[in-house]
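User: Modeling request: complex.
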Amino acid sequence: MTTTASRSTIFRRPTATKGFWSWITTVDHKKIGVMYGYTAFAFLLIGGLEALLLRLQLAGPEGQFLSQAEYNAMFTMHGTTMVFLVIMPMSAAFMNYLLPLMIGARDVAFPRLNALSYWIFLFGGLFLYSTFIFGTTGAPAGGFLAEEVSRLGSAPNAGWFGYAPNTEPQFSVGTVLDYWAIGLQILGLASLLSSINLITTIFNLRAKGMRLLRMPVFVWMSLVVNFLLAFSLPIIAVALWMITFDRQFGSQFFQAANGGDPILWQHLFWLFGHPEVYILILPAMGIVSEVLPVFSRKPLFGYAAVVFAGAAIGFLGFGVWAHHMFSSGISTVAQAAFGLSTMTIAIPTGIKIFNWLGTMWMGRLRFTTPMLFSIGFVAMFTIGGLSGVTHSVVPADWQQTDTYYIVAHFHYVLFGGAIFGIFSGLYYWFPKLTGRMYSERLGKWHFWLMFLGFNLTFAPMHWLGLQGMVRRTWQYASDTNLGPWNMVVTIGAFIIAASILLFMWNWVVSKRRGAEAGIDPWDARTLEWTIPSPPPEYNFAEIPTVTALDDFWHKKYSEDEEERPVRRDTADLLVEELEHTGNNPGKPIHLPGPSYFPIAVGLSLPVVGYGIIYHGEVWGVALLAVGVLATITSFVGWAQEPAEEPGEEESPGEEH
Amino acid sequence: MSEPAQPEAHHHPSPRQYVQIALLLAVLTGIEVGLYYTEPTFGRLVTPALLILAAIKFGLVVGYYMHLKYEKRFLTGFFGAGFILAGLVYAVVLVSVLILPRFG
Amino acid sequence: MADLAHDLGHHDEHESLGVDNRKLAMWVFLASEFMFFGALISTYLLFKGKEGMAGPLPRELYDIPFTSVSSFVLLMSSLTMVLAHNALTRKDQPATRSWLLATALLGMVFIAGQFFEFATFIEEGMTMRTNAAASGFYLLTGFHGTHVLIGIIMLLSLFGISRRQGSLSGGQGLNLELVGLYWHFVDIIWIVIFTVVYLIP
Amino acid sequence: MSPAGPIAEKIDGLWWLVFWIAAVIFVLVQGAILIIAFVFRDKDGRKEPKQIHGNNKLEVLWTAIPALILAGIAVPTVQTLFELTNRPDSALTIEVIGHQWWFEYVYPDQGINTANTLVIPAGQPVELIMTSEDVLHNFWVPQLAGKRYLVTGQETYLNLEADEPGEYWGQCAEFCGLSHALMRARVVALDEAGFEQWVTDQQQPAVEPAAGSLADQGKEVYLNAGCTRCHVIEGVWEDVARQPPAPDLTHVASRSMFAGASFEFNEANLRTWLANPSSMKDGSLMPNLALNDEEITALIAYLETLK
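Assistant: Request completed. Predicted assembly structure:
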């Protein structure tokens, strides 16, 4: 260790590159991506379980399966988990793992910041779920409970949107909503840090020659998503600070009696909320735009149109938020304006759908599982989009908002859209991740079973909503004829659960015993298929130079006079050579060393969270102090630790 | 904006220029505070004047102290994007909560 | 001004926008901070003029001369910050350190001014709990103060590194520039706050 | 959806217009997907596809056509929107106040205060001026009009009209806490004469029970078991400790539903309710007064006389 850095090593810098310890201190974007993926999948199972409990309660009229408190906790946690702990981190898994590979970089711009984002996310999620152990709730002030709220019921119970004033201390007694507010605050911070990291990576670490309009569409969609994250998360951070101060320090932001304005919460929440739902859907759109061309053996139809449509959706996302509030009594002029702006968003979405159809037109379609999921995405997302347009018509929305019609809409868009897109991506990049092929038969079973279950579950919700079934209702009267269709929905939900089990079985078995996949099983078009799978830690032995969009395809194929691709005779040789050089690079490659500090900061933030919640007690204040101190010392320690870019003059010999 | 002196080739404002800019900022702040006290007389004119002064100070600090004037164009683009987006979005919030309810 | 630290090693292999990663990240972070402070400022503006609220309103208690002095202090700290940065480009380490310290001290004077102002308001009966406008005011100025505090910690750690290592070079040089950007940003936010919150009726 | 009033009909008309446009697009797009999947599937001998990159004419086309369709939808949307939200001048105004888990209706001109069941004249526009005492609620009767929030500290307006006399069901549509599902609304539309009769009945003070009867004992229980802390019965007990007061019981029997219009006003439901209110509506603000059976029987007898 050279003199300059000696003081920084209070304890020796971690050097493990294998085994458990290497995962804890890793800064490798691939390991972080894998960890994001597995954590998100674990939360998907938990969120799915919550959904099944909800469906059992609603299977028949006047159900008694869950108590009112438990039902409210389950639907809130289902919403919060699926949005913040499943789709966002799963998109982060794809972005972290694939962005550097697709743009020809060795790692993200700030590897340790990337690790920090993951650890803050993980411990933020665990902090949120610790409400089931420590959280307390009860009847509103002055109310009486039928019986003590069970552990299952002591979780945030004011909806994933947490409308004020129901979240005020006098209506939400106990600590569960503090867990919700501070948990989301920590998760928001994780996404904000990773968005800044990825924006810098996309702009500054592209392969030579890869101009912006030569980047794969998934990279473009990630760029738009990260800008949406960077600009929308601060808004929810302010809103969450306001509700935390209202609950903990008695501020009057949403106390209507003393000047506060409950509608302000809705404005701030949905100002973040709508860009948020585009953050959930755009990565899946990016995945579909990568999968469709490969299995149609045709370039993406209208690349520039798809990219600009994505950017337009991202930007317009900031101008439509009040369509969630049409019936909340905002002025008629505002309702008209937001209704029209919501309609304009349907146009770029339409462009994307037509361009996907254009991609498949005249293609040579191979119906592998990723292709099936992508076509499923296009079909189901169209239904979600169309039902979305029907409630941009304001008077119609007065009938539809807060009913199961809206539940159907956003499940068609989020489940039919994002989850289908994510499964398409998981199957598509499975060979790259593991070096083995998944079982096509199991994959198809999984798709058709999920497709059936999905439609059985969410199609009936459209007319349930139109017949007057209200959202978040613990039960519905027996004289309304909503019972039969609700039973169908419950059965559908269990079919989806079965299909998820099929996926898990396929994943676990094929990871070990799947057939060898090689580096380019799909004869694909983007850079991540030019390196060995699973990719070595340094990704590219030689940073590639890119001359055109879908450069790898053009290296493998030339075009005859009818513009039909003809495989170059050198193509197979090229693929073998890429595999060979990929595995043994010429010169040694410097890689940023692992570090303790990301996990240290990640651990100290929830301690601050507990401190804020229990600042009333002495040990709460102590916790707060310890947490803040730990955060600062970890950051200061981090600043001392040289990031160890290869160009460091004084310490070329540092271990890596 | 008044340009005290054409910045030399290596586009670093010299310390002397920094001090000049600082003085200019101080003067502008003084004018702002002065305007505050004339509020009863000028009435409606004060608010726009204060906003313009604030904008000038904003521009001075961002342009010279944060060196945005000499940086590449897209940095101004990112920073401007955040500023304009915030301005637009919160203007709409303020309008729809404070002004539009009057129209019913 | 060219980056203080020469572009680090692997930049030439990549198609980049020609700005160092950390500087690009800082500018994007500052852009997103606009949304943060924008939300706080617009919340205060919403509640500022509301009738029918209990207790003293912030605008009744403002002490404009006192606040304009602390605004002046923050403006001057921007000057000392930029002089520190200028000194570093001339490799004049002692001057850099003294200007850094000056900036941190001015920052602390500003924070002291804020605490004093909060103390007088609380004495006059306006706390976080009095009414929505007061809550908005405290949250806004509180978060701005916290950002100034974080800036001071960064300035002092730079000062510490510079004293211990005798000089700021390579990566740390760029860090000084980034802390400078952050500090100026906190200053221009205060310029907006001072005008919109304090001065405009 | 079966609308039963002019406002709901306009909304329904608009909905079906947009629905059929969406249905047509649905058939076109899904059809295209199926055809593409079938025609261009990878059968053996199929040549490599032409590497088409895009077609600007097509791009312009499928940007313009959706824009035109949406413009077509936008015009009736804005028209209907402004039409339905202008406040009618000659309408019966009723104040609706939201509480945790029941709707309170005050008829300012007629001086009536009732709960759970909203009685309106058929064929006449009615304007609801709404606010809430605690959290956000959302008054919605699907057959008569769209839904509108009840916002704490603010007034919101909703126009309502029923063509024919009859009973129309509604519910609170905005999550408002533990018993949100049991906060229902029952709207009864009466013809002209019926409504006049109802108003005069409601304006009378409470019926005096016959001295010494079971109902009379019930009245005693009401007076000293603690009910008077929250419930008003005109002519018996008016000033109430708890502000805002609980539902006005002067004509409770005339409403045929109670506790957020979620339970039939019959002997069995009343008995369980009076024995332990939170067992039926979790989190209910009505305490368990630990009444014994006789007191409950007497109380029920008295309540049933309050037509």
